[in-house]
Amino acid sequence: MVEAELGRAHFQRIDETDDAQFYQMPRLVTHIDDPACQALSAFYRTHLPANGDIIDLMSSCVSHFPDDVAYRSVTGLGMNTGELDANQRLSWRIIHDLNRTPVLPFEDASFDGCAIAVSVQYLVRPIDVFAEISRVLKPLAPCIVSFSNRMFPTKAVAVWRAVGDADHGRLVEHYFIETGKFGEPEFHDMSPNPGNSDPLYVVMARRAAMVDE
Prior knowledge:
This protein is an alpha/beta fold. It is 26% helix and 18% strand. It has six helices and seven strands; from the N terminus they run H-H-E-E-H-E-E-H-E-H-H-E-E.
């Protein structure tokens, strides 16, 4: 699937109205169940650097970072003020629509890690966004992209709706690879209790030590 050329049609959505309208009302929910939340938190504990500056992209009312790990700062970039205000882990809160403006409002090499939790399926220009993630990460810093089988189907892109979980993982790997700015991506099945709780998958890659511009 991802070996084929991806075109504009693959990133169309059922609902192409302004995303700001869709996300206008706060949704103060986690989008995955408690066991999946705990599994994601455990993965962050192992792979996000403590005392680092972390960016939480497509952030909401919860970041899933472990309570017992301190970070120097957590910058949340999302679509809804109410959701970001409810997120007590955030040091900084920025309203920003990545589908309208994939350029991130940060200087080069600003962050020690990046997280995108259960929302990558909504990006209409994902490779542009992933290239920007590379730009704002320090060399060898991790980017952790998690997803489950839940989504707002009218806002998820066509290619995501068309395939299953295994190909979702390959698709996210493709986003990393196509930038040419990350090391080899790793796929992890973190599903805590298959058949009895939400599945959880993670694709992680580290910003390359050297990037050819």
